[in-house]
UniProtKB/TrEMBL annotation:
Residue segments, region Disordered: 80-120
Lineage per the UniProt record: Eukaryota, Fungi, Dikarya, Ascomycota, Pezizomycotina
Stated name of the protein: Molybdopterin synthase sulfur carrier subunit
The protein's annotated pathway: Cofactor biosynthesis; molybdopterin biosynthesis
Species of the source: Cladophialophora psammophila CBS 110553
Gene it is expressed from: cnxG
Glycyl adenylate PTM sites in chain numbering: G120
Amino acid sequence: MTATATDREEGTGTGTGTFTLLLFAAASTFTGGLETLHLRAPTTLRDLFRTLETRFPGISHAVLRSAAVTVNLEYVDFDPDEVEGGDERDGERASGGGEGLGLVINPGDEVGIIPPVSSG
């Protein structure tokens, strides 16, 4: 069974529509077993990380700094040192394939948070 949640809080995102956030491995564990969230769009990757930190205190340091992020199945490059603050540069206004925390996430997009996985 997949645990899901829908964002109903005001101030998350800046318009109508939603995107799907998929949480894998440690990201799902950190959120109490949630695997899918539906959040308001458009927003930026930076604002998504801030929203997650507000809802799940400590996730930035424990998960997001070392996680890979995909938007529409394309990896997004970002500086992990910017996750907990830092640079306010704008990213590209395109779905997927962009660079940085300023990347705009649009309605209908699918974002994945993929923490590193250890094997033994």
